[in-house]
Specification:
With 167 residues, this protein is an alpha+beta fold. The chain has helices at 12-25, 37-45, 101-115, 130-138, and strands at 2-6, 50-58, 61-70, 85-92, 120-126, 142-151, 157-166. It has a single domain, classed as Gcn5-related N-acetyltransferase (GNAT) (Aminopeptidase, 3-Layer(aba) Sandwich), CATH 3.40.630.
Length: 167
């Protein structure tokens, strides 16, 4: 049985391991630098603009996590979202996609977002991440922008699709 709960600092190691495996596989995350515990804590578990971070567990094993962080107004960034928006990031262990983990994580995240008066959620996804695009569409997100030709570390340029869910 899959359970969802708020992430705690002691989850950082398992979260980093899960995300590092996804990064090494490639193609489904904009993240390209491996995580250690400290980076996981500062980036997903407890960033300065944290709204929520949840983990999905089955028999004590971490199968996924989802983080939500307030947007920061940035006049220099034409793609920046208003400060009453939040950015979402979702990760499910390879081989466990399509089992409802993401849906359960999003149910918990959405409840917190509404409680915190988030006006909209932005999911910015690599255009070549077909499963990620399908997941967010299933959750009700709609495309409303695109960052063109964002370079990866190796120089490959990939669009980022901006999807939004208005609450």
């Amino acid at each position: 049985m899959i359970t969802i709960r708020p992430a705690i600092p002691s989850d950082a190691t398992a979260m980093a391991k899960l995300l590092n495996e996804i990064i090494k596989i490639g193609g489904t995350t904009a993240q390209q630098t491996l995580f250690d515990d400290a980076r996981m804590l500062s980036h997903y578990l407890a960033p300065p603009n944290n709204v929520a971070c949840h983990v999905a567990l089955e028999n004590g094993s971490l199968l996924g996590f989802q983080a939500l962080e307030w947007s920061k107004d940035d006049p220099a960034d034409p793609n920046a979202r208003p400060s009453d928006w939040a950015y979402i990031a979702s990760f499910v262990q390879d081989g466990h996609q399509g089992k409802g983990i993401g849906v359960k994580l999003f149910t918990a995240t959405l409840a917190i977002a509404k409680h915190q008066n988030v006006q909209a959620i932005d999911a910015t996804i690599r255009a070549d991440n077909v499963p990620g695009l399908a997941y967010y569409a299933k959750m009700g997100f709609r495309e409303d922008g695109r960052k063109r030709n964002v370079p990866l570390r190796d120089g490959t340029k990939i669009d980022r699709v901006q999807k939004a869910l208005y609450l």
